[in-house]
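Now for a concrete sample entry.
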Amino acid sequence: VRLVESGGGLVQPGGSLRLSCAASGLTFVYYAMMWYRQLPGKERELVAYINAPDGPTNYSDSVQGRFTISRDNDKNTVFLQMNNLKPEDTAVYFCYAVRVKYAGFTYWGQGTQVTVSS
């Protein structure tokens, strides 16, 4: 199983980025998908969640109204659209897959850096 994130980078405050996480080696429609983020020396924080196969979604208070999680089951990909970015959104962003109804099948991506700075 592989989860490969892309789309990170440097953006100014108020800007937007769209992260992608392409999954392979699993039956994507059976997995709830999440985006986490992590700052150096801190624990990973759940940012957004989308259930299998197509919702519902949930967000942390810190990103509610600015970030949108979505998925394309035909392309085995989950997205995180991030708008009105703030410096405090700077972190490494990871996607995470969790098999619904069966415990023990969980997978992490390698992460993508997002830096919000002027």
